[in-house]
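Internal ticket - ligand job 440, adenosine-5'-triphosphate:
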Amino acid sequence: MVATPREAFWAFGLYLLVLVAVWVVARVPVGWIAARSLIELPFVVLALALPFTGGGERVRVLGVAISAEGALAGWGILAKGTLGVLVSLTLAATTAPHELLLGLRRLKVPPVLVTIATLMLRYAEVVVAEARRMRIARISRGDDPRFLWQLGATARGVGSLFIRSYERGERVHLAMVSRGWTGGVPEASATGVRPVRAAPALLVERLAYAYPDGHQALYGVDLRVERGERVAVLGPNGAGKTTLALHLNGVLSGGSGRVEVAGLPVEKANLREIRRRVGVVFQDPDDQLFLPTAAQDVAFGPANFGLRGRELEQRVRAALAAVGMAEHADRSPLHLSGGQRRRVALATVLACDPELLVLDEPSANLEPVARRELAEVLLGLDRTMLMVTHDLPYALQLCPRSVLIDGGVVVADGPTREILADAELLARHRLELPFGFRLD
Ligand SMILES: Nc1ncnc2c1ncn2[C@@H]1O[C@H](COP(=O)(O)OP(=O)(O)OP(=O)(O)O)[C@@H](O)[C@H]1O
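stdout (structure tokens):
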């Protein structure tokens, strides 16, 4: 359409006819298209001005002298711009975004372009979802952006929307990095680094870390986890639990102290192997899922670590089956319920076959049945597990051992039952068993 010569008037008429036919067949409401076409208004004004401002030979039309070249240029902008907008709107009205991406793939568009389109789409979704959340939060407190006197608040809202979207984008990026994303096309094989077999699954020594803004989050954490252990990481808000978890696969680094996974130091040279061995399931599944279908999201990690073809398919199928989501493989993660998304997020990490599974608040926002089902899935996994949680009964159910962190240091480490039975210890660190819960 863009390449069509401006003088080929019949071709533009034909394009328009095809579009109208699509609207009729797909039952696209013309009002929906018309309202959104207003976006083109500035270009229409420009196109209408060109015949009067253009140079060159002038011709008289209805008694007014206009520039022939300007009129043709204006027509070109009007025809190509309008049809371009109409095509985009028709696509938006008839095709779900993830189907559009699948279509690009099927049309054999180079993978790097599809990846760029996927990430752009994900960012757009992030912005829209954040805008929706902020709108609800504001409206529920009496705000109405239509009122002029709230213009200032609306402007501030737009500013913070972009900051929030940026931060959410960063968290999505962290989740990608922790599944082996290096920004390039996945390599065919993993690195040849050999971990020391007899070493503990995890060794953390005197780990201290301050965020770039100077806030010291960890002051010297010591922790040793043996193979096959399931350990709960407990502690009040802001204790440093997530900061510790993000050090375990090198998403955060640059502090002092030492972290080793299966004897392998978490440092730049080993990051690829470390990320293959340590799977982090983030607190918010929306930070973890960003591809058009659940199956593609689950395939992302193992593909980054070199799996291809049938082996990759089997890995994806097995991971989805392990969390009871096999029949949702081809659905968009955006259309799944919160509990289903959490399970797919877990599958994205299980598919990487990690030795050490790190879960940040796995039971948050889950209904009781989904919470129990997830517990069954986790108990059925034969892996070393570190579970950051505020859900003390869940810690008791899943983890024989607990580590209590407060103020960036480990303040207690022992059998979960003993820690939870120590009411004084819990109270000192702002932890509390749920009302009515008793340790028998
Ligand atoms: N990106 C950041 N920049 C600066 N400070 C941060 C950042 N992320 C966390 N912190 C600070 O580091 C400290 C530890 O945060 P962290 O998220 O590790 O705590 P947490 O124990 O996981 O808390 P919660 O239970 O509330 O999730 C907090 O005081 C927090 O404000």
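Auto-summary: The first strand starts at residue 58 and ends at 61. The chain has a mean pLDDT of 85.
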